């Protein structure tokens, strides 16, 4: 469980750091673009100009975003093994096995038309 929690925390931190850096990078580039447009026209950028900026920004940073996505997907796939171990570790194997046996007994009793709640002994039926 602790292995999974540690790895999950590391993946979340990687995710957080990437987007924190990306947001700063985007805001800086956007402010620079707005300043450039204001200097050239004396007006704020129009929605069409901002749309062109955003398209350009995404194209310029496509490789970086793709690398991040690959790292993110790989990290999440690598979390599956410790997550499964943590999930299975939460079960007591003995009690789980007994639960399965009881469940199978109930299914068999229902299929043959017996009441699964009635205990049967070699001497007969006891309630």
User: What percent strand?
Assistant: under 5%
Structural class: mainly alpha
How large, in whole angstroms, is the Cα Rg? 30 Å
* Helical content class: over 70%
Q: What's the multimeric state?
A: single chain
Q: In DSSP terms, counting alpha (H) and pi (I) runs of 4 or more, how many helices?
A: 5
Shape: elongated
Give an overview in words.
With 127 residues, this protein is mostly helical. Helix content is 80%, strand content 5%. Helix 1 crosses helix 2 (47-60) and helix 1 (2-41) runs antiparallel to helix 3. The longest helix has 40 residues, at 2-41.
Write the layout of secondary structure elements.
Elements: H1 2-41, H2 47-60, H3 62-78, H4 80-89, H5 93-112, E1 119-121, E2 124-126
Antiparallel strand pairs: 1-2
Helix pairs in contact: 1-2, 1-3, 1-4
Summed up:
With 127 residues, the protein is mainly α.
Give me some keywords for this one.
127 residues; mainly alpha; two-stranded antiparallel sheet; 5 helices; 80% helix; elongated
């Amino acid at each position: 469980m602790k292995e999974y929690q540690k790895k999950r925390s590391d993946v979340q931190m990687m995710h957080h750091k990437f987007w924190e850096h990306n947001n700063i990078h985007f805001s800086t580039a956007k402010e620079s673009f707005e300043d450039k447009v204001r200097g050239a026209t004396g007006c704020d950028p129009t929605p069409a100009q901002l749309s062109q900026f955003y398209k350009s920004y995404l194209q310029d940073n496509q490789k970086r975003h793709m690398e991040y996505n690959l790292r993110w997907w790989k990290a999440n796939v690598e979390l599956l093994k410790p997550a499964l171990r943590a999930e299975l570790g939460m079960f007591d194997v003995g009690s789980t096995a007994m639960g399965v046996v009881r469940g199978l007994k109930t299914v068999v009793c229902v299929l043959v038309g017996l009441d699964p709640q009635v205990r049967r002994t070699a001497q007969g039926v006891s309630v």
